[in-house]
Design goal:
With 670 residues, the protein is of the alpha/beta class. It contains 21 helices and 28 strands. It has a twelve-stranded mixed β-sheet, sandwiched between helices. The protein has a six-stranded parallel β-sheet with strand order 3-2-4-5-6-8, with helices on one face. Strands 25-21-27-26 form a four-stranded mixed β-sheet. Strand 16 and strand 17 (431-434) form a beta hairpin. Helix 2 (25-46) packs across helix 4, helix 13 packs parallel to helix 14 and helix 16 (454-473) crosses helix 17.
Length: 670
C-alpha cells in the first residue's frame, strides 16, 4: 500500500521536509522539478510520436503565481539542459512567489521567452498553444482553496475546462499533450464536480499522491497518472495521513493461506439472503463468489419460489427456503440484499439479521435501498456492519443520512461512515473503503466489470473472505467472541482484499484490452493443496549479455532487479504467459524458444516453481518501460552482484550451467 494525502496534508509534509533539513523552498523545488522532468523525459523516450520530434519537441509551460508554476518553469530549465530548444512559458501577471520569480529569471537569462499572461492577446495565446507538442499545466497547486477565480480561472478557461468552452487549438489542428504537475489545476480538498479543473492527458503526481486525484468524479480528468517518488523523506511520509492506495501485490499480504489441515468449519461460515423472482442469478453469483473466496460453509436462503430452480445448480452451498420466519444459522457473516427486492417482508427480516452483535453483517443492493428508505432501521442493527453501495445507492444514502451530495467525495464518505457507524465500500470505476479512521482506495478503472452481476460477485467475495478472516482469528473450539474492534478490523482487511480480487486479480491485460480470467482463478483465494503454482522468467540474450529490468518503487520487489516474466495464470501455458508478460511489461512481441530448466522458491503465498525460458525478440522492437524504471544488459557472471529478486536468483545456477546463454542471437534493442 502507498500513502495518499489530502492537499492540506501534503502542504504539511512539504513544510516538515523543509524544517527537517533547514531547506530554502527553492532547494526543495529543485529536487522536485528534477524528479518531475526525469519522469516526463522517460515518458517522452517511450512515446514513438514524441520521440520522433527529437530535440525540436515544443514544450509550453502555463504558470500561475505560486510554486506549482515555479515547478513548471524549473522543468523547462531541465529540458534546456537536456538539449531541448523549442521552449516557452506564459507566466501569471500577478506577483510571483519568490521561488517562481527566481525560476523565471533563470529562464530569461537562458533566452527562453516567458511573457506575462496579460501582455498577450487571445490570438497569440492560441498560437502558442497550437504550436506546442506538450503543455505543462502549472497554473494552480495543492494549496488552492475553493473554485478557481480571477486570472487563474481565465487560464483554466483558456485550456478548455470551463463548461461550454473548448481548448484553444481548433478541431483538426495539433492538440498538445496536456501534462499536469502534481495534480490538475483547479483540484483541491474542497473540489466538487461543478468547479472548473484542467482535464489532463498525463498527471505527474509527487508521492504521496493526492487523494482528490482518485475521487470518482475527478479521476478521469487526471488522464494517465504517473507517480514521482524520492522527493520527501520516507519516515515523514510514513507518519502522514490515514489514507492508502491499494495495489494488486497487497492481496497476498491481506489473504492468509489456508492451512493444509483446515476443514470446512474452520474456514468460516456465511449465510446469504439473496434473490427473488426474476433475480435468481444474483443469489447464485454471490454464493459462487463466496465459495471461490474459500469460505468453508455457505448457506443460501432464497424465497420458496426460487428453491426448485436453484436446488439443481450443483454448487456446494446449503440451500434453504425462506419462510415467514427464517431460522438464522450459527455463522460468522451474513450477507443480505443482492437481487432481494424491497417488499414489506424484507424489513422485519433485516431487523432480525442485524440483531446479533457478535457476527458481521454486509448489506448490498436492495438491502441498502431498504435502509435508505427506512432510516429508522439503523437503530435496530447491532452487528458490525458494512455497506457496498454503487453510485446510485450512495446518493440515496446521502439523501437519508447526509451530508449533502454536493460535499466533496472524500468528506461525504467519511461523514456517512461516521454517521452510520458502518464501513462504507463505495464501488465504481474507483472504489473507496471508509472504515473508522482509515480509508483505502482501489484504482480499478476496469469497464468490463461495470455490468449486471458484477456487484453480486464483489459482495460474495467480501463475505467469503471476511468469514475466512474471522475463522482464522478465532481459536478452534473457543466460545469467546471477538471484540467489536477486531471484527471491524477484519472487515476492513476483507473489503480491501475483495476489491483487489474483484477489480484486479481477476482481470488481466491483453493486446486487445482486458478480459476476465478463467474461473480457475478461485485457486488464488482457496490456497489449498493443488499443484505448486508456477511462474516464468524470460531470458533474452544480446551479444552474450542477458536482459534484466529494475522494478519501479512499490510492491513486494520494488526497486529490485528481475528477469522479465511473472505468474502463470490458470489456464495458461508457459509460452502463452511469457508472450502476455512481455506485452504487458514492455509492449513487445516475444517468441519463447525452449525451457532452460526450473527452480523452486518461497513466496508469501507459499512455494512456487519458476521456469526459465530462452526468449527471442524481434530486432526492430523498442522496449517500453511500463512497470520498470530501467533495463540493463549484463554478462551472466555479473548477475551475482545485482540486487536480484529472490525468485530470480534461484535461476542463476541454470544460466551458469547452460551453454546457450553464452552466445545468444544478438538481438538489437533500441
Amino acid at each position: 500500500m502507498k500513502r495518499l494525502l489530502s492537499c492540506a496534508e501534503s502542504q504539511d509534509l512539504d513544510a516538515s521536509t523543509r524544517k527537517l533539513f533547514g531547506l530554502d523552498p527553492l532547494l526543495l523545488m529543485e529536487k522536485a522539478s528534477l524528479r518531475l522532468w526525469d519522469r516526463l523525459s522517460l515518458y517522452i523516450d517511450n512515446s514513438a510520436e514524441l520521440r520522433a520530434k527529437g530535440k525540436n519537441l515544443a514544450i509550453l509551460a502555463l504558470c500561475g503565481k505560486g510554486d506549482n508554476g515555479g515547478d513548471a518553469l524549473a522543468m523547462l530549465r531541465h529540458a534546456r539542459s537536456a538539449g531541448f530548444g523549442n521552449l516557452k512559458a506564459i507566466v501569471s501577471s500577478q506577483p510571483l512567489s519568490p521561488s517562481a520569480q527566481a525560476q523565471r529569471g533563470f529562464l530569461l537569462s537562458a533566452g527562453i521567452p516567458c511573457p506575462e499572461w496579460g501582455s498577450l492577446g487571445e490570438e497569440e495565446k492560441a498560437c502558442l498553444y497550437a504550436e506546442a507538442d506538450i503543455v505543462l499545466d502549472g497554473i494552480l497547486g495543492s494549496g488552492v482553496r475553493g473554485a478557481a477565480r480571477g486570472e487563474a480561472l481565465k487560464m483554466l478557461e483558456f485550456m478548455g475546462t470551463a463548461e461550454g468552452s473548448e481548448r484553444a487549438a481548433p478541431e483538426g489542428e495539433n492538440q498538445p499533450l496536456v501534462v499536469s504537475i502534481d495534480l490538475p489545476s483547479g483540484l483541491g480538498d474542497g473540489w466538487t464536480k461543478d468547479m472548473p479543473a484542467i482535464k489532463a492527458d498525463l498527471c505527474l503526481c509527487l508521492e504521496p499522491i493526492k487523494e482528490i486525484c482518485l475521487s470518482p468524479s475527478a479521476r478521469t480528468g487526471c488522464g494517465s497518472i504517473l507517480s514521482v517518488g524520492d522527493v520527501f523523506p520516507r519516515d515523514l511520509i510514513a507518519e502522514a495521513g490515514s489514507s492508502f492506495l491499494l495495489e494488486e501485490d497487497d492481496l497476498e499480504s491481506l489473504l492468509e493461506p489456508i492451512s493444509p489441515e483446515s476443514y470446512k468449519m474452520s474456514r468460516g461460515r456465511v449465510a446469504i439472503f439473496a434473490g427473488s423472482l426474476g433475480a435468481a442469478g444474483a443469489a447464485l453469483l454471490c454464493a459462487k463468489a463466496a465459495i471461490a473466496a474459500g469460505a468453508g460453509y455457505i448457506y443460501l436462503y432464497v424465497d420458496k419460489g426460487l428453491y426448485p430452480l436453484l436446488a439443481c445448480s450443483g454448487e456446494s452451498f446449503i440451500l434453504r427456503p425462506l419462510g415467514a420466519e427464517a431460522e438464522i444459522p450459527e455463522c460468522d457473516v451474513i450477507l443480505a440484499g443482492p437481487g432481494w427486492g424491497i417488499g414489506e417482508g424484507r424489513i422485519p427480516l433485516l431487523k432480525a439479521l442485524g440483531s446479533a452483535s457478535e457476527r458481521a453483517l454486509i448489506l448490498d443492493a436492495d438491502a441498502i435501498q431498504i435502509l435508505a428508505k427506512q432510516p429508522g432501521l439503523r437503530a435496530s442493527i447491532r452487528s458490525p456492519c458494512a455497506l457496498t453501495p454503487h453510485p446510485g445507492e450512495y446518493k440515496e444514502l446521502l439523501k437519508s443520512f447526509g451530508p449533502p451530495e454536493e460535499e466533496p467525495f472524500s468528506e461525504s464518505i467519511g461523514a456517512l461512515a461516521k454517521k452510520l457507524d458502518m464501513l462504507v465500500l463505495a464501488k465504481s470505476h474507483i472504489s473507496w473503503i471508509q472504515g473508522g479512521n482509515t480509508r483505502f482506495v482501489w484504482e480499478g478503472m476496469t469497464p468490463e466489470l461495470g455490468v449486471a452481476g458484477s456487484g453480486d460477485v464483489l459482495a460474495g467475495l467480501f463475505a467469503g473472505l471476511l468469514a475466512r478472516k474471522i475463522a482464522r482469528s478465532r481459536k478452534v473450539g473457543a466460545t469467546a467472541r471477538f471484540s467489536r474492534r477486531a471484527l471491524e478490523r477484519s472487515m476492513e482487511e476483507a473489503a480491501c482484499a475483495a476489491v483487489i480480487a474483484h477489480g484486479g486479480a481477476l482481470v488481466r491485460r491483453l493486446p486487445a484490452g482486458r478480459v476476465l480470467r478463467h474461473a480457475g482463478a478461485r485457486d488464488r483465494f482457496q490456497g489449498g493443496r493443488a499443484e505448486m503454482r508456477r511462474s516464468i522468467a524470460g531470458i533474452v540474450i544480446q551479444n552474450g549479455k542477458i536482459l534484466v529490468a529494475k522494478r519501479k518503487e512499490g510492491g513486494a520487489i520494488g526497486l529490485r532487479w528481475e528477469f522479465p516474466g511473472g505468474k502463470v495464470e490458470p489456464g495458461e501455458g508457459d509460452e502463452e504467459a511469457l508472450r502476455r508478460e512481455f506485452e504487458e511489461e514492455f509492449g513487445v512481441r516475444s517468441e519463447p524458444k525452449h525451457c532452460l530448466g526450473t527452480a523452486s522458491f518461497v513466496s508469501p503465498s507459499g512455494k512456487r516453481l519458476l521456469a526459465a525460458w530462452l526468449v527471442e525478440l524481434s530486432k526492430d522492437c523498442i522496449l517500453e518501460l511500463r512497470e520498470h524504471s530501467m533495463i540493463a544488459w549484463l554478462h551472466p557472471e555479473d548477475l551475482k552482484n545485482l540486487d536480484l529478486a529472490d525468485s530470480d536468483r534461484a535461476v542463476l545456477p541454470l544460466l551458469e550451467s547452460n551453454d546457450q546463454t553464452q552466445a545468444g542471437p544478438g538481438v538489437e534493442i533500441s
